[in-house]
C-alpha cells in the first residue's frame, strides 16, 4: 500500500490500472465500441445502396461529351445538334502532359462523322475542285461555304481555317482518333525499313508523331497505283523479315508486337512525344526538346533491369539499416546534433565578420528598382548582419541548452530507437504489411471516384442562351430573335436546343443564329443526388481513416506483444497474424469510432474551404478573418486528434479498452511524461529523416557510379535518367519502411512509460525494458539467481 500511495503523490493521480498487468493478453478482451461498429456497417450498407442506384441510373457518357473550340458541346448545343464527334486539326498537339491545364493548342470542331479516308491536300491538289471541297473539314460551315475556287482552298488552309490533312479515324469517346488502314498494314514493313535507310524519305528530326504516320499514309496513297513499288524493299530486308509475316502481324495485332518494337527502337513513340512536350515547357528549342524526350524514353526502356535491381538493393539495404540501427542510432544522432551546432557557429562567425566589414565600409546604395539590386542593398547593410548574428546566436544557445538539459531524455530516445530496430528485425513481416493497406486504399479511392462520377451524371442537361466571345475576348452582338414556342428566350435565360435551332434566327437575313447559341451549362442534379454526393465524400473520408487506423492498431499490437514478452526470443512466430486477428475480432468498433471523429473534422474543413471559395467574390475582410481563424483552428484540432487517436489505438492494442478509455489513459500517460514525449518525437523524426536521405542518396550515387564506370554493360544517352528514377523509387521504399519503424518506436515508448509506472524491478514486478534503458534510468531487476541465469 505504501508503494501505491507514493505513486499517487508522484504523478498527481492514482493509477487506475491493473497492478498485475503482464502485457497484452486475449483472455480478458471483449468487443469494444460495438455500437460504433454497427453504425459503420450500416453506413457502408447505405453507401453500397447509393452506389447501386448511381450505377443503375447514371450514364458516364454524359460526362464524356466533347467540347469544341467555341465551348459548344458536340451533339448537344444548338448549333452542333447533328455533329456528335470532335475532330482535331493536329491531334499531335494534344499529346502533352499539360493539356489538362493549358488545353490542346489546335483547332477543334464538331463534325457529323469521323473521316473514313485519308486526306493530304499537298498530294491531292490536282483532283477536281468539287471533290477537294467535299473532303475539307473547316472550323465553321460558313468558312467552307465561302470557298468557291482552289485558290480559296489554299487560302483557307494557310489561314488554318481548314485542315491541311487528316488521317482515317475512328471514334473513341466521341473523339476522332487515328485508325491504321489495310493499305498501311501492307506497306508498313517496307516503308519502315526504307524510312530507316533512305534519308530522302525521312522527315526532319523534329517531325511529330502524326506527321510520321501521315508520311506512311501518303506513301500508301502514292503507291496504290504502282504495283511494282511494293517489291522495292531491299532483298536483304526481305530475307530477314518476310513482308507477309509483317502484314499478318499488323492486321492481327494493330501495330503491336514486332512493329511496335521496331518503332520503339527508333524512339518514335507517343511516350517520347509526351516527354518531349513536357521538356519543351522548360526548353526554348522545340527540336531539342523533342530529341531529348526521345532520348529519355529510350534510356528508361533500356535501363529498366538496372532500375529494378537498384530498387531491390535499396529494399535489402533498408532492412539491413534498420537491423544495424541498434548500434548506429547513437553515433548518427549525436553527430547530427553536433553538426548542427558547428554549422550554427560557422554561420555566426561569418555573419559577425560581415557585420564588422560593412560597418566600417562606406557604401552608396544601388538605385535600380529590380529585385536583384534590392537584395544587394540588403546584404550591404550592417544592420542586416547584426540581426542575423543575434538570431544565430539565440538559436545556438537554445539548442545547446536543450541538449544539455535533455541529454538524459535524448539517450532514452536513442535507446528506444534501438529497441524499435530490434522489434522490427524480430517481426520482419511488419515491414511488408503496408502493402495490404495500399491495396485497400486504392480500392477505396476507385470506389469513391466511380460512385461520384455516376452520381454526377444523374440529372437533366441545363441550357442557357448566350452570346459567343470573339478571339479578342469581346462580346458579339448578333441580332438573334426567337419566335413561336421560343418567343420568351432572351440572353441569359434557360432554353431548349431543339426549339432554339428551329425558332431562333437573324431576322434581317433569315439565317440561323451563329454567334448566339443555346449552350450547355451543367447537369442539374436533383437535391437528393447532391446529398448523396456529400455522403459519398464523407464515406471516403471515414473509410480511408478506418483503413489507416486498422494498419496502426495491427502494428501496435504486434510491437506491444514483442515488448511485453519478458524473454524476447519467445516472441511467437505468427505475431503479426495474431495481431491482425485480434484487431479484426475485438476492436473494429474502436477503429470506427476514432476514424469517425477524424472524418467529421476533415469534412468540416472541406465545408470551410467550399464556403471560402464562394465568399471570395465579396471581398469582406471580416468574413475572411473569421474563416481564416476557423480553418486554422480545425487544422490544429485535426492534427491533435490524429496524434491522440494514434496513441489511443496503441493503448487499445495493449489493454483492450474502448476508444474513450484508451484515449484518456494515453493522454494522461503522455502528459505525465511531457518532456520525454516532445524529446522522443523530435529526435526520432530527425533521425528517420536523416536515414531516408542517407539511403536515397546512397541508391542514387551507387546507380550513377555504376552507369558511368560500366559503359560496356549498357549505353545510355543520359545517365541521370535511370538515376532519377532510382532516387524517386528509393525514397518511396524508405518512407514505407520508416513509417513502420516510427510506429514501432511510438508503441514501445508508451509501453516503456507503462513499464516505468507499473513495475519496480522486484521478482513479482520485474521491468520488461532492455538492460540499456534500465541503465539509463538507474534501475535494475532484482531477479533470483536462477531466473537471472535463464534470462
UniProtKB/TrEMBL annotation:
Membrane topology: Multi-pass membrane protein
Main location: membrane
UniProt keyword annotations, A-Z: Glycoprotein, Membrane, Transmembrane, Transmembrane helix
TM segment ranges: 34-55, 306-325, 332-352, 385-406, 438-458, 540-564, 584-601, 621-637, 686-708, 720-744
Source taxon at top rank: Eukaryota
Location of the protein in the cell: Cell membrane; Membrane
GO MF annotation list: transmembrane transporter activity
GO cellular component terms listed in the entry, alphabetical order: plasma membrane
Role: Choline transporter.
Family: Belongs to the CTL (choline transporter-like) family.
Protein name: Choline transporter-like protein
Organism of derivation: Drosophila busckii (Fruit fly)
Amino acid at each position: 500500500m505504501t508503494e501505491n500511495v507514493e505513486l499517487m503523490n508522484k504523478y498527481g493521480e492514482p493509477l487506475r490500472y491493473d497492478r498485475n498487468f503482464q502485457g497484452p493478453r486475449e483472455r480478458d478482451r471483449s468487443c469494444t465500441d460495438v455500437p460504433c461498429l454497427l453504425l459503420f456497417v450500416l453506413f457502408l450498407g447505405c453507401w453500397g445502396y447509393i452506389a447501386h442506384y448511381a450505377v443503375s441510373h447514371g450514364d458516364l457518357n454524359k460526362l464524356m461529351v466533347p467540347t469544341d473550340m467555341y465551348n459548344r458541346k458536340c451533339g448537344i448545343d444548338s448549333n452542333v445538334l447533328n455533329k456528335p464527334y470532335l475532330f482535331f486539326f493536329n491531334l499531335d498537339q494534344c499529346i502533352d502532359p499539360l493539356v489538362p491545364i493549358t488545353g490542346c493548342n489546335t483547332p477543334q470542331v464538331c463534325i457529323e462523322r469521323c473521316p473514313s479516308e485519308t486526306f493530304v491536300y499537298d498530294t491531292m491538289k490536282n483532283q477536281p475542285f468539287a471533290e477537294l471541297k467535299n473532303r475539307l473539314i473547316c472550323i465553321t460551315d460558313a468558312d467552307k461555304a465561302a470557298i468557291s475556287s482552289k485558290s480559296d482552298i489554299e487560302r483557307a488552309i494557310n489561314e488554318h481555317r481548314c485542315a491541311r490533312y487528316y488521317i482515317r479515324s475512328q471514334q473513341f469517346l466521341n473523339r476522332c482518333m487515328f485508325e491504321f488502314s489495310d493499305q498501311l498494314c501492307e506497306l508498313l514493313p517496307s516503308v519502315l525499313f526504307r524510312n530507316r535507310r533512305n534519308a530522302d524519305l525521312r522527315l526532319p528530326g523534329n517531325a511529330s508523331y502524326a506527321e510520321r504516320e501521315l508520311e506512311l499514309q501518303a506513301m500508301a496513297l502514292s503507291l496504290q497505283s504502282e504495283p511494282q513499288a511494293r517489291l522495292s524493299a531491299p532483298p536483304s530486308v526481305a530475307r530477314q523479315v518476310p513482308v507477309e509475316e509483317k502484314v499478318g502481324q499488323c492486321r492481327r495485332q494493330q501495330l503491336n508486337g514486332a512493329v511496335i518494337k521496331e518503332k520503339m527502337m527508333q524512339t518514335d513513340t507517343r511516350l517520347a512525344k509526351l516527354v518531349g512536350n513536357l521538356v519543351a515547357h522548360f526548353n526554348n528549342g522545340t527540336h531539342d526538346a523533342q530529341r531529348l524526350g526521345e532520348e529519355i524514353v529510350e534510356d528508361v526502356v533500356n535501363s529498366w533491369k538496372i532500375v529494378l535491381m537498384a530498387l531491390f538493393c535499396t529494399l535489402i539495404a533498408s532492412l539491413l539499416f534498420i537491423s544495424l540501427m541498434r548500434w548506429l542510432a547513437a553515433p548518427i544522432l549525436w553527430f547530427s546534433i553536433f553538426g548542427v551546432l558547428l554549422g550554427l557557429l560557422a554561420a555566426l562567425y561569418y555573419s559577425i565578420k560581415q557585420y564588422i566589414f560593412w560597418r566600417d565600409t562606406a557604401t552608396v546604395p544601388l538605385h535600380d528598382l529590380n529585385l536583384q539590386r534590392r537584395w544587394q542593398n540588403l546584404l550591404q547593410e550592417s544592420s542586416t548582419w547584426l540581426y542575423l548574428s543575434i538570431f544565430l546566436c539565440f538559436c545556438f544557445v537554445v539548442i545547446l541548452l536543450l541538449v544539455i538539459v535533455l541529454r538524459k531524455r535524448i539517450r532514452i530516445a536513442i535507446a528506444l530507437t534501438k529497441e524499435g530496430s530490434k522489434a522490427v528485425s524480430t517481426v520482419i513481416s511488419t515491414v511488408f504489411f503496408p502493402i495490404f493497406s495500399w491495396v485497400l486504399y486504392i480500392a477505396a479511392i476507385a470506389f469513391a471516384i466511380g460512385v461520384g462520377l455516376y452520381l454526377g451524371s444523374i440529372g437533366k442537361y441545363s441550357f442557357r442562351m448566350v452570346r459567343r466571345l470573339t478571339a479578342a475576348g469581346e462580346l458579339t452582338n448578333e441580332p438573334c430573335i426567337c419566335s413561336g414556342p421560343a418567343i420568351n428566350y432572351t440572353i441569359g435565360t434557360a432554353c431548349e436546343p431543339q426549339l432554339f435551332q428551329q425558332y431562333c434566327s437573324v431576322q434581317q437575313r433569315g439565317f440561323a443564329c451563329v454567334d448566339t447559341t443555346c449552350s450547355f451549362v451543367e447537369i442539374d442534379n436533383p437535391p437528393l443526388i447532391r446529398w448523396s454526393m456529400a455522403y459519398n465524400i464523407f464515406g471516403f473520408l471515414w473509410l480511408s481513416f478506418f483503413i489507416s487506423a486498422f494498419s496502426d492498431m495491427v502494428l501496435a499490437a504486434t510491437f506491444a506483444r514483442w515488448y511485453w514478452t519478458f524473454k524476447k526470443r519467445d516472441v511467437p512466430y505468427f505475431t503479426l497474424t495474431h495481431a491482425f486477428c485480434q484487431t479484426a475480432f475485438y476492436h473494429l468498433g474502436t477503429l470506427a469510432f476514432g476514424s469517425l471523429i477524424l472524418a467529421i473534422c476533415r469534412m468540416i474543413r472541406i465545408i470551410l474551404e467550399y464556403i471560402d471559395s464562394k465568399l471570395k467574390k465579396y471581398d469582406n475582410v471580416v468574413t475572411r478573418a473569421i474563416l481564416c481563424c476557423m480553418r486554422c483552428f480545425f487544422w490544429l484540432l485535426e492534427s491533435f486528434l490524429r496524434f491522440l487517436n494514434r496513441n489511443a489505438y496503441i493503448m487499445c492494442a495493449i489493454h483492450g479498452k474502448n476508444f474513450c478509455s484508451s484515449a484518456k489513459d494515453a493522454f494522461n500517460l503522455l502528459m505525465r511524461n511531457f518532456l520525454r514525449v516532445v524529446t522522443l518525437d523530435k529526435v526520432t523524426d530527425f533521425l528517420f529523416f536523416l536515414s531516408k536521405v542517407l539511403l536515397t542518396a546512397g541508391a542514387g550515387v551507387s546507380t550513377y557510379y555504376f552507369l558511368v564506370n560500366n559503359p560496356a554493360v549498357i549505353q545510355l544517352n543520359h545517365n541521370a535518367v535511370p538515376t532519377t528514377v532510382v532516387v524517386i523509387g528509393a525514397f518511396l521504399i524508405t518512407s514505407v519502411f520508416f513509417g513502420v519503424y516510427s510506429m514501432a518506436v511510438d508503441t514501445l515508448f508508451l509501453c516503456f512509460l507503462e513499464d516505468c509506472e507499473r513495475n519496480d524491478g522486484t521478482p513479482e514486478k520485474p521491468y520488461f525494458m532492455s538492460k540499456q534503458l534500465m541503465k539509463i534510468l538507474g534501475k535494475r531487476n532484482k531477479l533470483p539467481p536462477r531466473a537471472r541465469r535463464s534470462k
